Amino acid sequence: MASSEARGIDPKRLADLVLAAAVRSQAETVYLEPTSDEIYTFSFERNKQVITTVTVEALVGAAAIARLAYIANLDLAAASSSSAVTKVRSGDRDADVIITIRPSGGLRAELVVVPQRGNRARTAPPVAVGSIGDVVGNYRIVEPLGEGGMGTVYRVDHVALGRSYALKVLRSRVFEKDPTAGQRFLREARAASRVRHPNIGDVFDFGHLADGRPYFVMELLEGESLADRVARGALDPSDVVTIARQMASALATVHDHGVVHADVTPSNALIISDDPVHVKLIDFGLAAIAGEGIPEQEGDFVLGTPSYISPEQLRGLPATDRSDQYGLGAVLFELIAGRPPYIHKELRELCMMHIQAPIPVVESPHGPLPPKLADVITTCLQKSPQQRFPGMRAMLAALEEIDRGAHHRGWRKWLG
């Protein structure tokens, strides 16, 4: 790995050099992010390995990102992440570069390089997912584990290491309906893979199948989803607070890195141990391409999990960190009450309930709840994002206050 430092360079020139270097070096991803109040680091990565880094003064780094936003015609003032594609030629290489600007946690940018056909770069032949025993990249398929609205999961073994992982591939009908979904899938999965947190499932590898569909490889988590757990009945309030703190902590960390999950549901959280309760959040790549509006047809395909989607996403607006608050609030409501906040047999009516219906009262079959816990959930479920918590860390602070009170006085005293 090489490292260099750029001083006194014009930000316009620096942005052009970054684009050219990304293509010429055959990098797959370039991350431009603050590493301190004074320094920005530009990391060029290939096969999830850093091939070189460049450090610049913070003001120069932010200005270079502003220049990239100008090149891609992106709005720096946008409240959520935005992306666009620009064509870049460097030497004899041509590529489409997907530029993503992430405003959260300090201005950040991410470049994903998609080489054009005819470049001399050598790539591994693509493969298709087929039967047990087939090899995908460095992984041999052992068995299918499950299939959801957006992706299919397989248990795989690393051919050389013999270790077991989970491989998730975008479903054919999703890719056929929206060919750009593959790029967004990998963009968000790559971004989330850079975040290390005890309550986030780790992502280790990426690739493409023969038909162009992307896949990623993540740790194989043994456990039960929150969806399966709550299907047996409402959870004890003390466990719900523990789960809520862990999920909020995970989301706060990814929000700090400019990543939004956008599909926080009971199915996307796994309980990997019960004593103590330990939950991991998964499926960041698939979440990025979840529903973006009330569908005319195939609502389960477009939306994925409409019981937890925010009103602004249903209106066609991009998901933000406050959309994740709404999803988490809906999950916590279900864990407490044993059912989602809104239920309707017609998909369109269910979506309209998220947009228009009053927020239902949070009640538990285990008895009265601490008022502050109900307040946290109700705040998350506000129709307007501006009426929710100012950020996930503010929600986490409220949950920690509830937890401290419970331990200090005993949970039964809260229920009395």
CATH class category name of the largest domain = Mainly Alpha
Strand segment count: 16
Q: What Rg is obtained from the alpha carbons, in whole angstroms?
A: 22 Å
Q: Tell me which CATH architecture of the largest domain applies here.
A: Orthogonal Bundle
Query: What would the average pLDDT be, to the nearest integer?
Result: 82
Helix content: 25-40%
Determine the N-to-C terminus distance.
60 Å
Largest sheet: 7 strands, mixed
Low-pLDDT segments: 119-127, 290-304, 411-416
**Count of helices?**
14
Shape type: globular
Within the largest sheet, what's the order of strands? 1-4-3-2-7-6-5
What do we call the CATH homologous superfamily of the largest domain? Answer: Transferase(Phosphotransferase) domain 1
SSE string, helices as H and strands as E? EHEEEHEEEEEEEHHEEEHHEEHHHHHHHH
Fraction in beta strands: 25-35%
Instruction: Supply the helix-strand structural class.
Output: alpha+beta
Count of discrete structural domains: 3
Structure in words:
The protein has 416 residues and is an alpha+beta fold. The protein has three domains: 2-115, Beta-Lactamase; 135-219, Phosphorylase Kinase, domain 1 (2-Layer Sandwich), CATH 3.30.200.20; 224-415, Transferase(Phosphotransferase) domain 1 (Transferase(Phosphotransferase), domain 1), CATH 1.10.510.10. Helix content is 35%, strand content 25%. It is built from 14 helices and 16 strands. A seven-stranded mixed β-sheet has the order 1-4-3-2-7-6-5, with helices on both faces. The chain has a six-stranded antiparallel β-sheet with strand order 8-9-10-11-13-12. A three-stranded antiparallel β-sheet has the order 14-15-16. A hairpin with a 5-residue loop joins strand 6 and strand 7 (108-115). Helix 6 (237-256) packs antiparallel against helix 13 (392-409). The longest helix has 20 residues, at 237-256. The chain is globular, with a radius of gyration of 22 Å. The chain starts with a strand and ends with a helix. Mean pLDDT is 82; it is low at 119-127, 290-304 and 411-416.
